[in-house]
Design a protein that fits this description.
The protein is mainly β. The chain has 6 helices and 50 strands. Strands 25, 26, 27, 31, 32, 33, 34, 39, 40 and 42 form a 10-stranded mixed beta sheet that branches. Helix 4 runs antiparallel to helix 6.
Length: 732
Amino acid sequence: MKQYKKMLSIVLILAMLFSICVVSAVYVSAATSGSQVYFDNSSYNWENVYVYAYGTKENAKWPGQLMDKDSSGMYTMIFPAAYTSENIIFNNGLEKNEGKEQYPEAAGLPLKTGECKLLTADNQWVNYGKMDDHGYGFAYVQSGESFGTESLAVKLGLKNADKGYYSVDGAPKVAYKNGDTISVGQGKIGNSSIKLTLTATGADNVQTEQIYTYNKTFTASKTYFSSNSDGHTTEAEGGYYGTNPNMQLGQYKNITVDGKTDDWDSSMIIAQGVANDDPRVYMPSSMHEQPWDGYALYGAWDDENLYFMWEMTNTTYIISPSDNFAASNEARPWRNSIPMYLALSVNPEIQATGKAVGVDKNGNQYTNPFVWGCDGGVAKDGGTAFTTHIDTLVAMDSNNSNGGASIFKADTMDTDGTYMFNYDTRIPIGVSSFEKQDNKNGFQIKYANGTKSSTIYGINAPKGSRKMGDNLDPNSNWVDFMKKGYKTSYGYIYEVAIPMSLLGIDREYVETKGIGAMQILTYGTSAMDTLPHDPSVLDNANVEYGPDPSTSHEKDDVDNITVPLARMGALLGDTEVHYAPFEVNFGADLSSGQAPNKEITLSAEGYNNSGSVTYSFAVNGETVPNATSNTARWKPTQIGEYEISVTATDSEGATVTEKKTFVIFDPTAGKLIGDVNGDGKVDITDARDIQKYSTKLLTFDEDQLICADANYDGYVDIKDTTHIQKKLAGII
C-alpha cells in the first residue's frame, strides 16, 4: 500500500508538472484591442516624433500625439479599437518655418484596427508582429506581393527575439538573424504562389508563427502589328496591355444595346487595359475622386451598325478603402455629365490634329484648338490632340444628358495639310429629353453597373506607393483583383451603337478595309484614360492640377495620341505583323532550397505555339523518366545544385528549351544529430531530454528540434529516444 501511495504521489506530481509546462508553452497574453504603430527614427533622427491619425477618428490636432520610445529604440503608439480605418502621418512636430518634416508628404499610411505596423528606416510600411510582448519574425516585403523575375529578395526582421527561423514552401527551417535577406521563388514555375513561414521565440518562451505569401508571375510575349499608314509614332504598349490581343478584330454579330454584357465575350476584345492605372493613383491625395479607369474595349458590327462596349473598373475600395466616396458605388461615372469619345479612323489617309472649325452666327469662321471645352478659341482645361490618324470623333457624355453630343468629321483641310473637325457638318446624336433618352439619328447608348471580364489585372499598391512607369513594369505587384474580393457590381459598362450610314461605310467596308478605334475617357476635356492605352494620359499624372494641387495635372494638360488604334474588321494593307515567339513557362512546384528525398513535380506550359506541344524534362542533362504530358516527378537524394530543364516542341517543329537552378540542402549540416543539449556529444542525457520533450515536460528551439530527430523521420518523439539508446548500446 505504501509503495502504491508513493507511486501515486509521483504520478500526481508529474501530472502537475505536465499541466504547468503545457500551460506555459501555449499561453498567449491577450493582445490589446485596437491597433499599434511603430516608427524607426534611425534615418530621420528627429528630436521628437509625433504621429497624426485621421479617418474614422482623429487622435489630436496636428501634429498629433508625441510617441513613446520603447526598449528596442522604436517609437510607438497604440490606438483604441474605435479607430477602425485610419491614415497615419509621422512628423517631427515643427512648423514650416522651424524645419517641419513628415512622412508621408501627402495622404497618410493606411491602418486598420487589429493591425500592428512599422514604418522602417527606408520608409517601408510593414506588418510588425502583433500587439503583445511575444517574439515575432516579420518580412520587409508585404505578403501578397508579386514579382516577374526568377526570384524575389526578401529582407527578414525580428521583433522581441534574437533569432528566428524561416521555411519556404515547407522546406526544413533555417535560422536567420535580424536584417538577413533571403531569396524565394528560385526554380519555381511562374503564375504560382510561394509560402514563407517565419517562426520566432521571445523571452517568454512562446513560439509564434507568421505566414507570408508571394506570387511569382509569368507574362508571355504578345503578337503585335505595325502600320506606317496609320500615322502612329509610338508602338502599342505591352505587358498587361494589349491592342487587338490574339489578333482579334471584333466580330459580326447583332447586339442589343441594353447595358448588359450577355451579347459579348472575350474574343471580341479589341483593346485590353489594366485596372488601377488612372491618373489618381500617382497623386496620393487624389484618390477621393471618381475613377476614370478603362479596362477593356469590345467591338462588333452587323449589317446596319457598329457596336462598342467598354468596361471601366473601380478598385478604390481595395486599394484605398478610407476614401469613402471613391470606394463606394456612388463614384459611378454617370453621376456627372463628362465628355467621352470614340475616336475612329475611317479613312486612314486623313490626319486630324484635334482642331475644330466652324462659322459663328455672324458668318465669321473661327477655330478652336479642340472640339470640346473651348471658349473663344481658348481651351478651358487642356484637351486631346492626335498624331495617329483619326478622322471621326463620336462625342458623347457619361450620363447621356447632353443634347450637343455629336459625330464630328475631320472634313476641312488646314493650311498645313492636316484636317480640322467641322462643327457645321456635325451629326447630332444627343438627346432631346434626358428622361426619354431619345438619341438622334439612330445612335444608341446604355450604361449600367457590371463586369464582363473574369479576371481584373492591375497593380495592388496603396496610394502614396505608386511610381511613374510601374504600369509597364512586369515586376510591379500585379494581381488579379478578382482574387482580392473585387465586386463585379462595382464595375461599369457602356454600350453604344453607331449606324454605319452616318460614317459613310457599310458592312463590306468594315470587313475588307476595316476601321481604327480608340475609346477616350476625359475629366472635362483632357484625356484621363484610353483604350488602347496611350502614354500621354499618364505623362503628367504626378504633377499638380492648377486649380486644385491635391489632384492630377492630367485634368488640364494636352494629351497627344501617338499609339496605333485598335483595328476592327480588317488590318490596313501595309500592316506588318510581329508574331510572339514560342515560349514556355517552366519550373518546379516548390521553391529551390528543399531537403533530400522530397518529391518535386516539374511542369511546363507552352505559349504562342502552333498546335500541340510535347515536353521533355531533364535534371543535369539526364531525362526524367516518370513524366506525363506536361509534368515530371523528381526525387533528389543528394544535396547540391541541380540544373532542371524542359525542351518543348510544337506541331510545326519549333523548339524552345528553358533551364533553371534548383538547390537541395542538408538541414542538419554543421549539427551533431542527437545532441539536443549542445554539449558536443550524444549520450543518455540527450535521450532523456527528448523523452521529456515528447511528454511536453520540456521545450526545444528550432536547432534542438533538428538535432532531436535522431531517426530522420521528420518527427520528434519517443522513437528518437529509443534510437539514441540503441545506438549507445551498440545495437545499431
